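Entry type: protein chain
Record version: 2
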Amino acid sequence: MERITLTIEGTVEEIIASIFKLAQIQQRSPEEGVSWLDDEIEDFVVNRIQTEARQILKEMANRPSGYDRDELIRNMRLTGRGLAGRLSSIGHNIRKYYPMKRHPINLDEDTWSYTLLPEFARWLINHDISD
């Protein structure tokens, strides 16, 4: 098994941007990959991710076409690192359980806002996922 150790120094924003860039090396662009079916979204949201990650997705579903990163941090009562950790767990679980699927979240590094795939937003708005 391979082991890689990285050190990333900088501001929280620079660190998050670096992590996203590293993740995109092995991740398809948001336009690539297979679309999600409702039963796959349900399995992923209900069975594959932690409560905190579900809550973030549910919040993002309120503004799927663009949710300002700093506002999301405030609304979720997290730090930048806390948000990054929860979002990275979503990416990890997609690669583990649904590697051919499109990633549901995209970060626009110019505006520092997140977008959510429409099919995810629709499913999250129409289903009660409270724990």
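Comment: The two ends are 36 Å apart (CA to CA).
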